[in-house]
């Protein structure tokens, strides 16, 4: 993430539930009140996923609550949103998802140059024992850092 990018929404659960093999940046087609709602810090990627249908990429299940001052121009909170990718990128993602059984999971939404971007992860699901291994590795790394810090303070 570059210095001038502003973080809007993050899907922390995705890194817990999936192995993220590769990431792709995509634009997203939003309405004005959706952008305003995201800038206000609202929105959720918890149940969201991306799907490629008829040569177009779509983000499904993302919840953006209606903008408080949006009155009649507000949007449907769960509507499908089109992802803006080049045709070659879409074809490459489709090929990988079909052949290797990966899932396209949105990792985060951020502003880049005044435009909302979504970071998609090409993900493979974790089993419960994989999750336990990840937690154990993280705890071990913390213990090592703690021991080094204590050693340096003496």
Describe this structure in words.
With 154 residues, the protein is an alpha+beta fold. The chain has a single domain, classed as Small protein B (Small Protein B, Chain: A, Beta Barrel), CATH 2.40.280.10. It is 35% helix and 33% strand. It is built from four helices and seven strands. It has a seven-stranded antiparallel beta sheet. The longest helix has 26 residues. It is globular and about 65 Å long.
Features:
154 residues; alpha+beta; Small Protein B, Chain: A; seven-stranded antiparallel beta sheet
Strand/helix succession: EHEHEEEHEEH
Radius of gyration: 19 Å
Shape: globular
Q: What portion of the residues fall into strands of 2 or more residues?
A: 25-35%
Mean pLDDT value: 87
Architecture (CATH level 2) name: Beta Barrel
Q: What is the structure about, briefly put?
A:
The protein is an alpha+beta fold. The chain contains 4 helices and 7 strands; from the N terminus they run E-H-E-H-E-E-E-H-E-E-H. It has helices at residues 12-17, 32-39, 87-100, 128-153; strands at residues 6-10, 18-28, 49-53, 56-60, 81-84, 103-112, 115-125.
Per-chain topology:
Layout: E1 6-10, H1 12-17, E2 18-28, H2 32-39, E3 49-53, E4 56-60, E5 81-84, H3 87-100, E6 103-112, E7 115-125, H4 128-153
Antiparallel strand pairs: 1-6, 2-5, 2-7, 3-4, 4-5, 6-7
